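Two folds, back to back.
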Amino acid sequence: GIAAGSLVELIGETGSGKTHTSLKHAAEIQKQGKRVAFLNIENAFYEPRANALGVVTRNPDLFELWENVGAGESWGELAKNLVKSGEYGLVIIDSVTAMIPGADYDKSLGDTAMIGAHARMCGRLAQKLIELCGDSGTTVVMINQFRYGSGAIKGTFVKKSTGGESIGFYAHIRLVYSKIGGDAGSVYNSNKELIGGRSRVLC
């Protein structure tokens, strides 16, 4: 299990099970009578899926869904205030990747992005959350993804954490997901229909 008051980063490729894990954790937290806040930054929350995994979504004492808050800093302040309140057992941020800093949020598509703004914002947020999680006993799950960036040698690319490496540094627990390819990674039901996939998770 995950200790109450932990800051947890779930990072990996799309479709590897990060949101699935978060929703399963939410269902377990709700069984303890605690409220879950889901920050739907990617606008990808699918209620029937959450319900199928055991999450109660229509009881405001157990679940809150937050959407369309704005720039990344607004999401960050919201997350901090939810944790600080002590009224939640779990806060899920889905995802860090979609938190666009204010320096870039209102720019047109042709404008140059502010280099490092996202990483600095995420680092400050993670740094503050570890303190707030410890004080309130609230667990925060930050869902994140890898991206490909320039390597040390010109023309090479390496896999990097979105939002810089600071989240992984500050997080109490980091779970790194990678999908298993081929038949070994496929999950079938009794009718031999493909219903899901398997991933390796490095803790």
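---
second:
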Amino acid sequence: MASDRFARFLPLAGVLVGFIFIVGLALTWGDPSSEAAPAEHYSYWRDNRGQHQISGLLLAPLIAFLLVFFGAGLQRSLRRTGGDSGHGAVAFGGSVLAAGAFALVGMLEGAATNAAHEGEPQAVYTLSQLHTYDWLAWNAAFAAVLLATGLGALRNGVLPTALAWATVAIGASLLTPLGIFGFFLLPPWLIVVGILLARRTTVSSEPTRPAPEIST
């Protein structure tokens, strides 16, 4: 029974990640671009210290934690009869990489806000420049997750065919200049796929009733 509850939680972790992701984006919207002047970077991190501390020290580590569970759920769902699917292994590995990226983002946000609070503009500018390129790690990690999940779902039917193809398309977009659009589709994808896989896990874990005996 406890094992069944844990198995149902794995995909639901993705739902939680999706909602927390949306909250984090809303809190940190408007980060200065890499081309912004050093003074703009410094004033931004100084003036927005509170929300970035919430995002970096609370939300990002929580997302990183939950992504490991969601990756395990994807691997379990993509597992083929008689052994592990390579698609599941790649999806799990991508989820772990994404978790590491979120943990790094949290560290950068915490360090940048602290440097701004201590009045260190050069340190803030360096950390902020690193922060503006955090999408490189996110895109690579989630591209692996989505491509492996979509291709694996096309083989074993764990997701509806239309959603599986959409997953492949979003994952592929993350490796192109159109990755910004795929990035903003990630939260709803996590929510939808997490719910569908959780429902599938619930159905598959329900005990089957024995057929009634027919007396002769």
